[in-house]
Amino acid sequence: MARVVLKNLWKSYPGAKNVAPAVQDFQLDIADREFVALIGPSGCGKSTTLRMIAGLESATQGEIYIDDQLVNDLSPKKRNISMVFQNYALYPSLSNFENIAFALRVGRAQKYIIEESVKRTARKLEIDHLLDRYPREVSGGQRQRVALGRAIVRDPRVFLMDEPLSNLDAKMRVQMRLEIIKLHRSLHATTIYVTHDQIEAMTMADRIVIMNKGVIQQVGTPEEIYNYPANTFVGGFIGNPPMNFINGTIEHGRVFSNKTMGLQIPRETGERLQEQNVHSVIGGIRPEQLYIEMGSSPVSDHTFVGTVDVTELIGADRHVHVDLGKTGTVVVRTGAETRFREGDTVTVKANMDKFLFFDPNTGCRIH
Ligand SMILES: Nc1ncnc2c1ncn2[C@@H]1O[C@H](COP(=O)(O)OP(=O)(O)OP(=O)(O)O)[C@@H](O)[C@H]1O
Ligand SMILES: [Mg+2]
User: Fold this and answer.
1) 41 in ligand 1 pocket by Cβ < 6 Å?
2) Which of 20, 193, 282, 330 has the fewest beta carbons under 10 Å from its own?
3) Which CATH code, of 3.30.870.10, 3.40.50.300, 3.30.750.200, 1.10.1200.10, is assigned to 4-236?
4) What's the CA gap between 225 and 231, in Å, rounded?
């Protein structure tokens, strides 16, 4: 299969004057067989990046290599890439069989090879009983599998997928997610997968690339991205509910302090922050690293007190929003069985080993 290297890729759309380039200085080295997810808010440049790799958009600047071959000037066909889109893009007047066979027919493969390849692919996707039907005669999930079949039948070097599951209902999406993971395991094709959905990115990808406004914010494994977000954007984008951010100052390299709290920080962290002469910071803590109890215990070096604002029951979890007055609000993730109500005074305890600190000017993580 293939290694894909993207070097300093830029894209400015012609006519889009006085706007920042859609993609800015995109750098990524994707290993052979790797599954990479591109994620970020709407308009951040995910599809543009994918389309440049496919050859459907030209790069304004930068280089695209597939297996050490510079492909900038190769037509999409010659890049040996398959792309799956959100809206299937199947031919309605062709049967599912013919839809899957399409690329092979265009490539003038022999008839028995086409027959063989289409059937093998369809079996893999469990749609072999649907080959005689037309796309309109099967369900959305099955249609998406036909589209996947059309992409994999050619044995491409690279798969590009642009939100392939976003048209499916929640249940079908989960099922197809597992199928794509399995498919990736059996085909070992280098895959670049664009999604809005952080669960898809976290569960499917070897590495995640988070973009915002055309710029890569962080590249890392799902664990790295979740536990060590590079900046407040990533911490706020990944995780549901997102990371809590609290403004404060570091006092004597020992205490994270503001009007509501004075939390003792681990010694090593404190030493690092002091070395860097850090004073004002944004503290970041995930909702599951906070614990609450009813009532206001005496203030300690790892607790603070607030008032319950809203609680949301989400299946097995309850998200409790705690109002800290001038300090803002934090969200605490608790079990569904907890019985906190609006107006309750509560004590929140923080797991200080998991507290992260960000630079308030740049948003970048300091520790
Ligand atoms: N053909 C085009 N001409 C001009 N501007 C474009 C064109 N296509 C996209 N853009 C702009 O480029 C930026 C990136 O768009 P892109 O489609 O890559 O975003 P995206 O991350 O895929 O978003 P979404 O999640 O909504 O699909 C956006 O600001 C968009 O308006
Ligand atoms: Mg898009």
Assistant:
1) no
2) 20
3) 3.40.50.300
4) 10
